[in-house]
Structure formats: C-alpha cells, structure tokens
Amino acid sequence: MSGTRFSDRAAAGRELARRLAERHHPDPVVYALPRGGLPVAVQVARALSAPLDLVLVRKLGAPGQPELAIGAVVDGETPETVLNEDILRLTGADARYVAAARARALEEIARRRAAWLGGRAPIPATGRTAIVVDDGLATGATARAALHALRRQRPARLVLAAPVCAEDAAASLRAEADEVLCLREGGIPFGVGGCYDDFRQLDDADVMALLASLPAPGSGPAPAA
Known about the structure:
Elements: H1 9-21, E1 28-32, H2 37-48, E2 52-54, E3 57-62, E4 65-74, E5 80-83, H3 85-91, H4 95-117, E6 129-133, H5 141-151, E7 157-165, H6 167-173, E8 179-185, H7 204-212
Parallel strand pairs: 1-2, 1-6, 6-7, 7-8
Antiparallel strand pairs: 3-4, 4-5
Helix pairs in contact: 1-2, 4-7
C-alpha cells in the first residue's frame, strides 16, 4: 500500500495491530525496536493481549554519515552483529572502524538496558510467535539483527511488522522472517519520518512511561488504550 500517511506512531500501531489480529497468530510475544518502534509495539501488544519486550539494537553508522547504516548490533549473551557489505565497500569502513563502532553501540545498549529495564529478565521467544515491531524500515539493518538474534531462540514463527517499509528492505527481510507485514511498502524519498505527521524523537522518559503503561510480564493482558 503506497501513499499511506499516519498522524503519529500510535495511530500507525493501531492499524498495524488490526491487521495482525486478522492473521490469528498463536501465543504471541511482541518485541519492540526502541525507541521509535515502542509506541507502535505498545498498540500491538494491547490489541493482541500479548506481553511486550525490547530488542536492544543499535545501528552502526557509516564514517561521516551516522544516519547511513553499515550494519547493526543486538544485545544478548552473544551479541549479534549484522553488516551490509555493499555499504561497507562504498563508505570505506574497515574492520577497525567497525570494531570501534560496535563497542560504542554495545556501551549504549548496556546503558539503555539498565535505564529502561533495570533487572527485568528478557521474555523468551522459544516456541512462541515472536512479532518484531518497528516504526519503519529504511535499510532494514536493525530489524535484520533483531531477527537473527530471535531466530536463535527457536520461535514457532517469526514475524516482522512495520507501518512503513522501503521496498528493497522489505524484499530482503522476507528471507529472514517467516512473515513480513508492511502497511505502506514502496518509495520513501523523505525517509520514514516523512510518512508521519508527528515523528518526534523519544527520550528515556518517554520509553519508561510507555513501558509503565503496560502490565509487568506475567501479570495479565495489557489494558486498552
């Protein structure tokens, strides 16, 4: 669906949730890609009465172009790193640069885990429908790293869902997930943010408020918005 525009992430999340609910995924657990994916994922978790967890992923920016992803790293017992070899070659990022960028990313992931989740244990995906949610896929680097990490946990089904997806990113990620759902798939010349009226950046307080709006894992279904 091209041309779709959303008022904000919550509105996009409600529409994404409606489409996911139609597909009847058994025993779901929702994994948000913060920060931007969290307001979308909260709506999905509420609609599906599913627990929500975070997949802490950090993009690795190219030399001199921090918004251009050469890859991404995701938290875990063995952190998963996924690199885009084509962009690595184009930007001249060598092994030393990648190692330094990865170390900085893991430091920030550790800070975020402590600030946002404290000592909360991750929710395992094993044997469940794992639904990874972001606010949009431009290169797909962070989503790919998250999918790789969750696949190692052997979910029954691995789903990637986002309101907005660049066509190339969606096509490549269909090889990584069992199912990819995009409400708007196609050209995004102004980036993911250009598909939203309100695309403000979230801070730590926003993340913690959104997490607090949901019940603790195992305490029952999420309340309606």
